[in-house]
Structures are given as C-alpha cells and as structure tokens.
C-alpha cells in the first residue's frame, strides 16, 4: 500500500482549518500530520513532522504573540515559506489564500512556493493541487501565471516592483508602526528603514503615510 501524503495545514482561523482538514482527509491518500496557526509554529512543526506538502495561508501573524488582527498580514505567510525552504530546499508549499490580487501571486512564487490557489477553488482542485505538488509538479492556474507575468494594473505593478524587504517594511508601516518600531521588529537600523521607506514612496509615487495606508488597504496588504 502506498504511504499517505503527509500534510501540514497552516491557517490562523480554526474554523477554516477544520473545513480544509475535513476536505483533505476525505481522500484516503492524504493524512494531516500537523496544524499551525502562525508562521513560527509552521516552521517548528515542519522541522518536527517533515510533511510531504505544506498547505498554507498567507494572511497570518509571524508568531503566537501577535494575536491582534492588525498584526495579520502577508509577512507571516511569506516569511514562513522562506524559512521553511531555507530549512529544506526541497520543501513543497501550496499557498491556499483569499489574498489573490496582485502582487501576492508573484511574491508567493518568488518565495519558493510550488502552488497558488484561492480559497474559492473547487474541492477537487485543492486535492488535485496537493497531489500534483507531491509528485514534483507546480500547480499555478493560467490566470495566476498571467498576473505573475505582470499583466495587471499600473498600481499593482508598482507594488510588485518592491523588493522582499521593501514589501515587508511597506506592510509594517501600513499597519501603523513607526520607523523605530519597524527597525526593532525586523532588526534593522532606523536609518536603513528610512531608506527603504524613501524607496517605497518613490516606487509607488506616493508622498505620505496616509497614501501608503490607503494603497495597502486597496490591495489587501492590510485590513481596514
């Protein structure tokens, strides 16, 4: 008998996790070996359980101390993907998220994920994606490939031009953190964060934090 596909399920909402768990284990070839509700826990559980595929949301906190909903952003998911792949370059991550607008698909692929699905996908598509990724394939729909290749709005393209670090700083500033708070959280000097902020403003053609926040809300990077 073929061994079941071992899944690590990562989502900060227990009810959502429970729903996807029921769907996944309805297939006898799939086994849930762990569940996590934040980026740090996902990395720890990956090291412990060595799953075949990680099914992960993007919009979640980096760690369990960030319980405030305002701290939930794509940094939690993206950072977890990067850390897992840094730990195991052969890791297979399928992103399953409601955050389907640009620039998320491109950043997910750049972070090293093997697949990208939205939470409105059909149940059969999720199962097919898990099996395809387990078999060493990528699973990215044509619609998402189009977005990744840059066929989007000028505003979204500008966000996509941000580096990983700039996107991280952008999200934290949009949550209302000061430059000093951002510097402390991501272990940079305030001078370096100021430099990133200047580059972000230039790339996004904005001039103040209010515009930055409105742009972040429009594109689902932070919640209103």
Which SSEs are present, and which pair or pack?
Layout: E1 5-10, H1 14-25, E2 30-36, H2 39-49, E3 53-56, H3 74-87, E4 93-97, H4 104-111, E5 115-118, H5 123-134, E6 139-140, H6 142-148, H7 154-160, H8 164-174, H9 179-185, H10 190-204, H11 209-218
Helix pairs in contact: 2-3, 3-4, 4-6, 8-10, 8-11, 9-10
Give a written overview of the molecule.
The protein has 224 residues and is an alpha/beta fold. It has 2 domains: 5-148, Response regulator (Rossmann fold), CATH 3.40.50.2300; 154-218, Winged helix-like DNA-binding domain superfamily/Winged helix DNA-binding domain (Arc Repressor Mutant, subunit A, Orthogonal Bundle), CATH 1.10.10. It is built from 11 helices and 6 strands. It has a 6-stranded parallel beta sheet with strand order 2-1-3-4-5-6, with helices on both faces. Helix 2 (39-49) runs parallel beside helix 3 (74-87) and helix 4 crosses helix 6. The protein is elongated and about 60 Å long.
Number of helices: 11
Report the mean per-residue pLDDT as an integer: 84
Order of strands side by side in the largest beta sheet? 2-1-3-4-5-6
Helix content: 40-55%
CATH architecture group name of the largest domain: 3-Layer(aba) Sandwich
Q: How would a crystallographer describe the biggest sheet?
A: 6 strands, parallel
Contiguous runs where pLDDT drops below 50 for at least 5 residues? 66-73
- The best one-word shape is elongated
Overall number of strands: 6
CATH C-level category of the largest domain: Alpha Beta
Instruction: Enter the CATH topology name of the largest domain.
Output: Rossmann fold
Strand content: 5-15%
Radius of gyration: 17 Å
């Amino acid at each position: 008998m073929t061994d079941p596909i071992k899944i690590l399920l990562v989502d900060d909402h227990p009810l959502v996790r429970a729903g996807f768990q029921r769907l996944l284990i309805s297939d006898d070839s799939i086994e849930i070996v762990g569940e996590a509700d934040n980026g740090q826990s996902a990395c720890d559980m990956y090291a412990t359980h060595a799953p075949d595929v990680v099914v992960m949301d993007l919009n979640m906190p980096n760690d369990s101390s960030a319980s405030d909903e305002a701290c939930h952003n794509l940094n939690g998911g993206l950072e977890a993907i990067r850390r897992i792949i840094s730990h195991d370059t052969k890791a297979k991550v399928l992103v399953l998220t409601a955050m389907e607008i640009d620039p998320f698909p491109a950043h997910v692929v750049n972070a090293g994920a093997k697949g990208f699905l939205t939470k409105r996908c059909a149940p059969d598509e999720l199962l097919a994606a898990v099996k395809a990724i387990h078999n060493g394939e990528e699973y990215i729909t044509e619609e998402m490939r189009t977005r990744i290749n840059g066929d989007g709005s000028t505003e979204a393209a500008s966000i996509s031009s941000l580096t990983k670090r700039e996107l991280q700083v952008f999200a934290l500033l949009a949550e209302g953190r000061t430059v000093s708070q951002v510097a402390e959280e991501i272990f940079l000097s305030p001078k370096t964060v100021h430099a990133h902020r200047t580059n972000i403003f230039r790339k996004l053609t904005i001039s103040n934090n209010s515009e930055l926040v409105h742009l972040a809300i429009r594109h689902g990077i932070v919640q209103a």
